[in-house]
Write a structure and sequence with these properties.
5-stranded mixed sheet, 47% strand, rod-shaped, 4-stranded mixed sheet, mainly beta
């Protein structure tokens, strides 16, 4: 019997010299299909981009080799699994004319992630206002799923500073140790230029100007002979400008602030003529600097402070020149002298003559006293 199905057995006897052949007798029965034995074997593999199927065999009656089972995988894949993961594989035999369908118990196919590596580069950069991301290379090349944090943030930093970098890999088929590095964003170079280094004293502070390139950088500090206060008084001052900025660095800019003394003028009103012996007169010249004026008068007049005095008696009329001066100080130049002149007049005593004649009357001469008044 070679297969399943209806089987007829015929018994015959051919006879011999003494007996004729017997009439054949047929007996029929049904031969049922056999159930094969399905064997399945899973396995553990490392991802390499190739299929990794379960294996097995189907054994029939008498050890007949019926081939390999057909495997179904959960989670479902249309063919042998390739990607890393854990798969349940059930091998089955579909059956045929002589054998029933059969299957084996599920086996496990485990494909572990392959080992990759990460390397971080581009970790020294210079501030330019744009985000400064590092570069992470993978081995094998081109792996997806690289995550990078900068001091714990997923956003690449823009500002100058140092940042701890951690690169990790999240990939279906590869695993890698995290890669650590330090990103340094250097400050960009800037320049400082001093201006307003020449000024004239006017009683107000004279700060210099500092221009930055790039423009409008903060914070610029200026010192004048070591002081942060801009000077007011005339003189020369050593100026140092420095930059303290989170994203820019610059060499100090140095120069000399020269505050010149201010010019001044004197206002001195004309003087009126005087006589010898007149009372002293207060001189009232004023300087635009508000500094006090000093005076010198020609002889015979004299000056004490701002008091102009005249001798009690003198000779002929004389022209007197009074000079008003202001010598200046540490903040003012000397003012040009201003001169005023006046006439110091001689004192002339008035003289009068009067004639007195007696006036006769009927009684004779009037001998009463005569009073004459001279003015």
């Amino acid at each position: 019997m070679t297969g399943a199905g209806s089987v007829t057995i015929r018994a015959t006897q051919a006879g011999n010299t003494d007996y004729n052949a017997a009439t054949p007798v047929d007996q029929s029965f049904n031969a049922a299909k056999a159930t094969p034995i399905v064997n399945a074997t899973g396995g553990t593999f490392a991802y390499d981009g190739n299929p990794h199927p379960a294996t097995g065999s189907v054994t029939g009656v008498g050890g007949a080799n019926l081939g390999s089972p057909i495997f179904a995988y959960t989670p479902g894949v249309s063919s042998s699994p390739i990607n890393a993961g854990t798969y349940s594989a059930v091998g089955s035999f579909a059956g045929d004319a002589n054998y029933n369908t059969a299957s084996a118990a599920a086996v496990t196919v485990l494909i572990n992630k392959a080992t990759a590596s990460l390397s971080v580069s581009n970790i020294n950069q210079t501030y330019d206002g744009s985000p400064k991301a590092v570069t992470v290379a993978t081995a094998p090349d081109g792996l997806t799923g690289v995550n990078i944090t900068y001091a714990g943030s997923s956003t690449a930093p823009t500002n100058a500073g140092t940042y701890s970098v951690v690169a990790t890999l999240v990939n279906n088929n590869y695993r890698a140790p995290e890669a650590d590095a330090t990103l340094t964003v250097q400050k960009a170079h800037a320049t400082l230029s001093l201006g307003n280094l020449s000024a004239v004293y006017d009683g107000t502070a004279k700060p210099v100007t500092v221009t930055t390139s790039p423009a409008n950088l903060t914070t610029v500090t200026v010192t004048y002979d070591g002081s942060a206060t801009a000077p007011t008084n005339a003189g020369n001052y050593a100026v140092v400008a420095s930059l303290d900025n989170s994203n820019y660095q610059a060499d100090n800019s140095t120069g000399t602030l020269a505050i010149a003394k201010a010019d001044q003028t004197i206002t001195f009103a004309p003087l009126i003529n005087k006589h010898f012996g007149d009372a002293a007169e207060a001189l009232t010249a004023t300087a635009s600097s508000s500094l006090p004026a000093t005076y010198v008068a020609g002889s015979p007049a004299t000056v004490s402070g701002n008091s102009l005095t005249f001798p009690p008696n003198g000779g002929s009329t004389v022209t007197i020149t009074v000079t008003a001066s202001q010598a200046g100080d540490s903040n003012h130049n000397a003012a040009p002298d201003v001169l005023q002149t006046f006439q110091l007049l001689e004192n002339v005593k008035p003289t009068s003559t009067a004639s007195v004649a007696p006036v006769p009357n009927a009684a004779g001469w009037d001998k009463s006293a005569v009073v004459v008044t001279i003015t």
